Amino acid sequence: MKYRTEKQIKRRKEERKGLPDFYKHHISISKNRKCENCGLKIKNPGTKNIAHIIPKSRFKSVNDNLDNYLFLCSNFDRFDGKMGCHERYDKSWSSAMSMPVWKLAVERFNKFKHLIVEKSRILEYFNYDKK
Q1: Helix (H, G, I), strand (E, B), or coil: what is residue 50?
Q2: How far is Cα 26 from Cα 13, in angstroms, rounded to an integer?
Q3: pLDDT tens digits, residue range 28-47?
Q4: Which among 112, 83, 88 is positioned nearest to 100, based on CA atoms?
Q5: What ranges do the domains of the chain cover?
């Protein structure tokens, strides 16, 4: 287990303080929902079905922004041996960009991109116009 100082623990707690409400909100609106990528009905929605459009660990300024989400099936929802859409989205940017849900991800990203303070080349992917 990685050792963290009291200062690191306090900073991490502060950075993540909005996430419980973020997840609670999205779970409450996800009842009887389907995966926004493949359409699979999600029987027991939970945090495993809420993917962040851009990584919450690297973009703390928007980690709890209500538009920074996609509702996706996970490995736990699938019984057909296929990888869940959440895991596919998180696998790599080329994987995420090849998914039908990418257009929705870009639309939602554009709603909160002005709030992002971190610098990263990841953001360039959202300027890519997939034809």
Answers
A1: strand
A2: 21
A3: 887 678 999 999 998 888 88
A4: 88
A5: 17-127
